[in-house]
Structure formats: C-alpha cells, structure tokens
Amino acid sequence: MCFSAEADFVSGAIIGAIGVATLSQVETPRQVPLAALPVAFALHQFTEGFVWRDLDGGSTHTGGPAVYVYLLFAWVLIPVVVPLAILLLEPNGRARPRLAGLVVLGAITAVYLSSSLLSGDVSAQARGHTVLYGGAGRYADVATALYIVATCGAPLLSSYRFVRWFGIANLVAVAAIATVQAEGLTSIWCSWAAVVSVCIFFQVVAWRGDGDRDGPSRSGAVRASLGR
Predict the structure, then answer these.
(1) Do the beta carbons of residue 98 and residue 157 sit within 8 Å?
(2) CATH code for position 40
(3) What total number of domains does the chain contain?
(4) Contact, 69 vs 47, CB < 8 A?
(5) Cβ of 198: how many Cβ atoms within 10 Å?
C-alpha cells in the first residue's frame, strides 16, 4: 500500500499480475479501457514507490519527476478515464447521459488540477506512513469534491454488479480517509482503488462467462441490471 517504497513495489507487482489476468479475459475492444485500469493502478503504485525513495533519501519535501508522474495519473487521468471507461460499456440508456455528464465533470476537474502541474507548484512530503501531496491551489476542496463525484459516482451508476461494488468500496474508503486523514486522501485512496480494482477482474470474467464476444448484449444488459 502507501506505507513505504517496499510496500508500494510489492502491491504494484500483485495488482499488476491481477491486471494482466484481467486483460487476458477481454473479448471486445470496448472492454479494454476498464480492463486496463488494474494495470494502470499497478504502475501508479510503482511510481509512488519512487516518490518514497526520494523522501527516504533524506528529502523532507520533494517535487521531483516521480511526484509529477504520480499526480498526472491521479489528478488528470483518473477523473476522466474512470467515468469514460464505464460509459463505453454501459447498455442502460437512462444511465448513459448521466455518465457522459460525469465524464465532462471529470474533465473539468482534470483541467483545473493540470494547471497546478503546469505551474510547478506541486509537492510531496512524508507524514508518518503516508505521502501528503500538495499544490492543488485555492479551489482544492471544490476540485476534490468534483473528483469524488466523477470517479465514485460513475461506477455507482453502472448496470454491472462488480463495477458497482468497485464504486461502493471506493466511496466508503473516501469517507473513511477524509474523516481520519483528509490530507493523505490522494495517496491512500489511490492505493485502495488499486486493491479493489480486483472487482474489475471479476466483472470482465463475468462478461466472458456470458459468452458475449461483441460487448454487453441486450440479454446481458438485462441480467446486469438485475444484478446477476
């Protein structure tokens, strides 16, 4: 998890193996963005391992390349890719406009947070066993709220059971982390999201079990909407 470089490297390797297994189950191109998330989360964990290495090397406050790579994924890609990946697979006509709205919301959040990366104001520091990332600007709280709505709200709107579980687990984690250690939200939540991305593996396996090689079929959509 996010408690040390070694922990990040080990968890990244385990999640990466799950990610490769997930991609091996893909049967249609529309499944790829969602199925690729576990591998992306694994690489993200590896990146934070290098952030820890910089901090363990004696720096109490770093804004090195690893920090920028980590935050590029956490702040810019995740809020767009997560709702978009779910939108691409959603068969429910009523949910699709809402998911499209969350993609737009995530994009707005990403544009705002990317301005912090471009300005060079971001930083990371260790506090206890957590990395605290800073530099999101004066509207950080608003950006955080929109970020949570886009990334946790999208899975909750999905017609698919395991995707909904992915969203529920992440939403519960956000609430718990914000209550205990709000400043460490980026690090701890991204680590948790990586762990629960195993739900994505089960969803892709479930689609394969339906025997649908062209994406979610109408009958598959009915079964998914019933949570089966």
Answers:
(1) yes
(2) 1.20.1070
(3) 1
(4) yes
(5) 20
Q: What is the reported pTM?
A: 0.82
Distance in angstroms (rounded) separating the CA atoms of residues 81 and 77: 6
Question: What is the block-wise mean pLDDT of the chain (228 residues), using blocks of 10 residues?
Answer: 74 91 93 94 89 74 82 93 95 90 97 91 79 85 91 94 91 75 64 83 87 44 41
The runs of H, that is alpha helices, within 90-217 are: 95-119, 140-157, 161-181, 185-196, 198-209
Pull the structure tokens for residue 115: 């301005």
Nearest of 62, 60, 63, 154 to residue 107 by alpha carbon:
154
Is the Cα dihedral 54, 59, 60, 64 positive or negative? negative
Q: How far apart are the two ends of the chain, measured CA to CA in Å?
A: 31
